What we know:
With 154 residues, the chain is α+β, with helices and mostly antiparallel strands. It has two helices and five strands.
Amino acid sequence: MGTTTAPEATAPSQPGTPEAGNDESDVPPAVSPTETVGVQPSPAAPGTPSSPPPNGHPAAGTPFPGEGMTLQQVKNLQQTVDGGHQPWRLDRVAVAKSFVQGRFGWSNVQTSTDSAPNVIYLTNSDGARVFVHLIQPATQGARGIWTVDSGAWS
């Protein structure tokens, strides 16, 4: 049995490997799915249909991997942000929006938070909804970058 994954958009920038001297540091690039390393989608459970529901989106609860950055990518990215580049990485909502733009091609999303500060719910203009779990894998607090650890359709 195969698994179904959501269509992925290709992003022009690679947040895990920032370029020095990038003057467009105020604009969050879409997070590229090609940067995920070591994270694989879970195989479908026995008896789970392999085709998406009629609305074209995976069923609620279907997980998807996060950015999957390596330790070295995280360290490099934190250092880049510490140097004044990509300040949007300090804003968890901006990181979540960039992630769904790169992963699903969403460009007009509504966001909301629940009681868990590291979870962001995102709703696309077509009504599709996901949540993402964010972490600060390097520096903690106001100067720490945020990355998407995982997510699921809701």
